[in-house]
Design a protein that fits this description.
This protein is globular. 45% of the residues lie in helices and 14% in strands. Helix 11 links the parallel strand 5 (199-205) and strand 6 (228-232). It is of the alpha/beta class. It folds into 3 domains: 13-232, 3-Layer(aba) Sandwich (Rossmann fold); 259-335, Tyrosyl-Transfer RNA Synthetase; 344-421, RNA-binding S4 domain (Structural Genomics Hypothetical 15.5 Kd Protein In mrcA-pckA Intergenic Region, Chain A). The protein has helices spanning 13-21, 30-39, 60-71, 102-119, 135-138, 143-149, 156-161, 163-170, 177-180, 182-197, 209-223, 260-268, 275-282, 287-294, 301-317, 319-335, 349-354, 358-364, 371-379; strands at 26-27, 43-48, 75-80, 130-133, 199-205, 228-232, 245-246, 249-250, 344-347, 356-357, 383-385, 388-389, 396-397, 407-411, 415-421. The termini are far apart. The strands form 4 sheets. A 6-stranded mixed beta sheet has the order 1-6-5-2-3-4, sandwiched between helices. A 5-stranded mixed beta sheet has the order 9-15-14-11-12. A two-stranded antiparallel ribbon has the order 7-8. It is built from 19 helices and 15 strands. The longest helix is centred in the N-terminal third of the chain and has 18 residues, at 102-119. Its EC number is 6.1.1.1.
Amino acid sequence: MTEQTTPTDFRSPFMREAQARGFLFQCTDAEALDAAMLAGPVTGYIGFDPTADSLHVGHATQIMMLRLLQKHGHRPVALLGGGTAKIGDPSFREEARSLMSDETIIKNIAGIEGGLRQMMTFGDGPSDAVLANNADWLDKLSYIALLREVGVHFSVNRMLSFDSVRSRLEREQGLTFLEFNYSILQSFDFRELNRRYGVTLQMGGSDQWGNIVSGIDLVRRTDSKQVFGLTAPLLTTASGAKMGKSAKGAVWLSAEKLPVFEYWQFWRNTEDADVGRFLKLFTDLPIEECNRLGALEGASINDAKKVLATEATALCHGRSAAEEAEETARKVFEAGTAATALPTRTLPRADLEAGIPAFRIFTEAGLANSNGEARRLIRGGGARVNDMQVKDEGLIVSLADAVDGAIKLSSGKKHHILVRPE
């Protein structure tokens, strides 16, 4: 089964909007899927392995695809990989993931579920989202039965041809037999979801194409049913950086792992060339409005970035939190005041009472990754304490500098933190 070029004359609302917003990259039979969506509601799923206790911006494309499915009256299924997480998806990874304990997987699933419920409507209605966990069936599998019933339908030669596998082998990193089974289990998931929930569409990033196609083949061979696969492009920014990464690491969807203001600020810092594209992918704004905002130039593009930041944050954290983050940014960047809603870091009271050298407090507060980086920040004139430029790396910062119980640290014009005593 090969990739098909998607036509431009779709008739179903989902396919038309998915294409217009930039979600379509590959589809196994786009015309047949379009017809199926016109004939009635389609149930589609995307899997999320609980490798951490929160999803991150790199998952946002997949969540938005499920939201779009729901918007047009179809039923989305969010599949949590409680079973497959015990193996780990090897797709395009340089080395095997560390195996997680059952306790860690359970904890991660709880965190991810909370994020998904924030962004989609779950329930028993025809288009309400379904939350499933593949541990419900994978944990009960008999290995011999799986080999006899499912394994016979998989060609090792074909599995070795998948880009995700071939790239790993070409780097001579090796691929464990445990990881090699992942594609089989993901295919089993598709068939099981088809039998349990009537799922006929699997979606995901383009790195999942091989696994998705394998699942389609399994359903066809064992159940003689037509099902579909659809992938979105893996996103990079206009400058070529991987989408969803910041200087501090992953941009988490959980407010417990990343303050709402920092999430808002991530979107506010979008490169000019990406604004229109990201508005279409990561907000619910009409496509015409996304195009209008994305076409703004000069200083006006900053207004579009604020709209992007607020709309994307509202989907993840709620409208009230998004508007509060926007107002915090206005106060910090436009009015020059230290807003109490800025991200906060706590340091030991005893250390702050004694005083901490400026280079070290920037490191401990998370505005620099090392003391050396903090020193360079100060030498370059980018470090400020309570909006005053720091010129001396050894300047002692203490509780005596606190304003309303907090010390405001700034790295450049866009990164600010309030330091308070524990």
